[in-house]
Write a structure and sequence with these properties.
This protein is of the alpha/beta class and 210 residues long. The chain has 8 helices and 7 strands. The chain has a 4-stranded parallel beta sheet, sandwiched between helices. Strands 4-5-6 form a 3-stranded antiparallel beta sheet.
Length: 210
């Protein structure tokens, strides 16, 4: 059994809501272990996409921030911006990599203090870099579950009981969250897990990950 828990976006430290999700997820994992199953606890680190790039750019004093729409406010961002040693004109990718690492370390430390041990910290960025997202979409397309509409690429999840179909590739050509999630699910099963348990956050709506 694989239990995915917390998986909060790395645009800040763990909040009370995220920590509650971790405590609940760890309790579920312990119950499954008590029932005699082998359990792996996993945190899906969303270190790719617009949100995390915006976070990295928000820490830049100039150049990179001007190339990113909007800015994340707050003490965490300001504190990071004060200590990150990068050229103001460094790329958004460089700022993102520099900003995400200390946040990642703080998230790990917070969960350990709560006695929530995570076995695997899985990077979304690695999914994209390995080509797993494109392969997963191609596999779904070959099976007849992918179609085009309104300039976007869709996965026909309603065929499997979902309340609506989900966007894989947005009309601007960028991958939607569900595209990476599709590849991630396939990756989990390929590792030999028999059942996947998701501990959804209170801010997760719909049934796209249920």
């Amino acid at each position: 059994m694989l239990v995915e828990l917390v998986s909060a976006n790395p645009t800040g430290e763990v909040t009370v809501a995220s920590a509650r999700n971790g405590a609940y997820g760890d309790s579920v994992a312990r119950l499954v272990e008590f029932a005699g199953h082998d359990v792996v606890r996993e945190y899906y680190f969303n270190d790719a996409g617009g949100q995390v790039d915006k976070f990295g750019a928000s820490c830049a004093p100039g150049g990179a921030a001007s190339r990113c729409r909007g800015r994340y406010p707050g003490e965490v961002v300001d504190a990071l911006a004060a200590v990150l040693d990068l050229d103001p004109d460094a790329s958004v990718e460089e700022w993102t990599a520099a900003a995400v690492k200390p946040i990642f370390d703080r998230i790990r430390a917070s969960l350990e203090r709560l006695r929530i041990h995570v076995d695997i910290w899985f990077s979304e960025r690695e999914l994209h870099a390995s080509g797993a997202v494109d392969r997963a979409i191609g596999k779904a397309r070959a099976a007849g579950h992918v179609y085009e509409r309104d300039g976007a690429t869709w996965l026909a999840t309603s065929q499997f009981g979902d309340d609506k179909d989900r966007v894989l590739i947005k009309s601007d050509g960028s991958p939607a969250y569900f595209a990476a999630d599709l590849a991630y699910i396939e990756h989990k099963f390929a590792r030999g897990h028999d059942r996947l348990i998701y501990i959804l956050g209170a801010d997760t709506t719909g049934t796209s990950r249920a």
